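name: query_chain
kind: protein
chains: 1
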Amino acid sequence: MQIVSLKMNFVKEALLASILTANITAVWGQAPGDTLKLSLTDTWARSDAFSRLVKIKELDVGISQEEIKDAQMERLPELGLMGTAEKATNIPIYDNGLFNRPSQHEVIHTLYKVKSELYLNIYNGNKLNLKIREDKILHNIASIRREQATSDIRYKAASLYLELQRSHIFKNLITQDIADQEKQLAEVKAFHKNGVVLKSDVLRVEMELSKRRMTLIEIQNEILIANQKLNILIGEPDHRIVRPDENFEILRNASQQDYEDFLHEALEHSFLYHISEKNTELSILNVKQIRANTRPKVGMYAEFYYANPQIFLFPYNPYWYSLGIAGIKASFPLSSIYHNIHKLKAAKLELEKEEEIHKDTEDKVRQQVWEAFLKYREAIEQIKVARINLDHALENERIIKNSYFNQASLITDLLDANVQQLRSRFDLAAAMIMAQNKYYLLQNVTGVL
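structure:
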């Protein structure tokens, strides 16, 4: 049975080694030119440039800008040019009754006319100025949405970048731990050869080593997955290897005073807050636009034309003539006085609703900032705890290892101590990455990322 167990263990080790070798080749088998070293700032620049969502929002900004210019062009006068060429029949005169043959009254049969027209809006209830102001607010909203999309993409890029950075750190930790476990296995085998420890101790260490190698394979796959996600976001080929910085960003501790600073920034820069603010302004404009329906319309018009024949004044004659007319035109829509009543009430209710939505949005922003702030501060504290735990785990491993090789403790105690120190290293790295992630989330919520 012992021989069978040893053979199965050998086969398992060989299989894991082959999988690990293939996985490492898949990750690092590319030529040096296929590896792209990026800082987080470079990643943001690439995601900003490549993001299709940001491009769509950029186009929305351009569209809204053109709509402002289109509304401003409405201030220019309306010009028109028209020409006609007509044929007319004689005029039948029923001088003997409607049921008798009429006599024909001769007329000038061919008529020509070339006319130009002009209309300049002088006053129309201030509707045009209100329309321009509305388009400018919509342009501001489009700009805010573009900045919001950029911020969201940056946070997503930061999350993927940090995920990739964490996986690389885990890979380095597990690789170093495997090397340490191999040395420890050699020591245990030497003790077994001298009859100090049992064969079961060797097998337990080999099993733990196999688990470490399997963990390394899993981490390599996580690197590949995170690498592809980041490549898609920054516009690189799927299998392009991205190497993140190995240095951690220096983070500062967060105090209660910092929360007030973050909240002040959020109320000044938050995308949701300012979009809600602009929607309230649109509702105010809507009320003014509906009120403008009950105001008079005043404009200046002019008309000039050449025509043949002259049938403007009697007696008519078959000659070309010209005529120019200019004046002021004014109108007042009486029916709008009663048509506008319920429209105005609805607009005022809509304004009241938007004001409540704006207050609700402010509450949500405060809640989001507070939650993100607490999670960030919690992540900072987690780093401190993880560092203390790592120190304890290292000391515990040292004590248990000396105790084991002095035959004062069991192999299970040693392996548990090994696992605990590795987990503590992972926890510290994960806590440092998480703290950065929460900081960028806080910046995204406040609108300054």
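note: The beta strands are 35-38, 78-87, 91-93, 103-105, 110-124, 241-244, 297-308, 321-331.
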